[in-house]
Amino acid sequence: RIIMGIESSCDETGVGLVRLHDDGTVELLADEVASSVEQHARFGGVVPEVASRAHLEAMVPTTERAFEKAGLALSDVDAIAVTAGPGLAGALLVGVSAAKAYATALDVPLYGVNHLAGHIAVDTLQHGPLPAPCLALLVSGGHTQLLRVDDIASGITELGSTVDDAAGEAYDKVARVLGLPYPGGPPIDKAAKNGDPAAIAFPRGMTGPRDAKNDFSFSGLKTSVARWVEGATRRGEEIPVDDVAASFQEAVADVLTMKAVRAAKEQGIGTIVISGGVAANSRLSSLAAERCAAAGIELRVPRPRLCTDNGAMIAALGAHVVAAKLPTTPLDFSANPALPVNVVSLS
Ligand code: ATP
Ligand code: MG
Ligand code: FE
């Protein structure tokens, strides 16, 4: 069966096509993404109205490109999955409207699914079915959560989350302080490669004895980096951008991996999946690999292209929802900007 996935929760218009095989494996056929990120760069963050308009313009051409790449026709589609939330209301609406139109015209079932679960499900395209249970460390532009995944189609439980900024948000804000472009993850990752991660001892948030074990906090770290840079500037010193980037990145990777490994051990879970845009970070995956190996835990990280927003992740999740024979979503559903992670598909 062919599943089409549509993503439009933020600034990426994504259309993915996958094949669900009878044995439950999911094969990637096409993954086309159009990003409006350059239109937002000068604002240092996504401008919702600009993103919505860009989705509207990109939706049909991106869909056409996906079918062209896969060598398929619209009539080959057996089911459609679309991001129902969480995300920007106006942006989500474009994808949801397109999905409803395609599902009606093609007379195929429609599934409104969760963007965050999609970030996890995408890993099955690269590494095969997820073992159950597994522990997901979801680190993206808007979310940072530790999740227990008993079933990707219906069994996600939140163990903890950030109490303030998301990890990706911290990257974007620190990049701004350092004069690096938006989005900040990739340029910080690159600068950090030439820096000393031990140059500056930035704080590790939420790691005190009385702090919630599975929660995160990155706003103190962000402020600490900003203060450090202000201080150096005031003293007329040149900012060692590479060292600040490396030290900041080390603090983020240290806390994320420490908490993920500890939670997996406590839950008796043998596999950790890191997902979301920040999973593309090179230090996060190398430190996670080190610590998982030491703890005897299997680590799965999708390739960077699959970590950031795309349509294939929604198609992959849709395929798992179809395979689980879950109910379809009635055509009159609305997007939910605040859809909680435990609601994997709407019914
Ligand atoms: P959400 O999934 O929570 O709705 P989002 O979809 O906007 O948010 P993603 O596209 O999953 O977020 O991830 C984008 C974030 O990932 C940005 O904050 C970006 O800076 C960060 N990011 C991308 N590449 C890297 C990298 N190599 N290192 C660190 N962060 C990165
Ligand atoms: Mg994005
Ligand atoms: Fe995302």
Automatic annotation (TrEMBL):
Q: Does the keyword Phosphoprotein apply?
A: no
* Keyword entries, A-Z: Acyltransferase, Cytoplasm, Iron, Metal-binding, Transferase, tRNA processing
PROSITE patterns in UniProt: GLYCOPROTEASE
InterPro entries the UniProt entry points to: ATPase_NBD (IPR043129), Gcp-like_dom (IPR000905), KAE1/TsaD (IPR017861), Peptidase_M22_CS (IPR017860), TsaD (IPR022450)
Under catalytic activity, the entry for this protein gives: L-threonylcarbamoyladenylate + adenosine(37) in tRNA = N(6)-L-threonylcarbamoyladenosine(37) in tRNA + AMP + H(+)
Query: Which GO biological-process labels does this protein carry?
Result: tRNA threonylcarbamoyladenosine modification
* UniProt xrefs under SUPFAM superfamilies: Actin-like ATPase domain
**GO terms under cellular component:** cytoplasm
- Cofactor stoichiometry and binding? Binds 1 Fe(2+) ion per subunit.
Q: Which parts of the sequence bind substrate?
A: 138-142, 172, 185, 189, 281
Recorded GO terms, molecular function? iron ion binding; tRNA N(6)-L-threonylcarbamoyladenine synthase activity
Q: Which residues bind Fe cation?
A: 115, 119, 309
- The name on file for this protein is tRNA N6-adenosine threonylcarbamoyltransferase
Which organism is the protein's source?
Amycolatopsis iheyensis
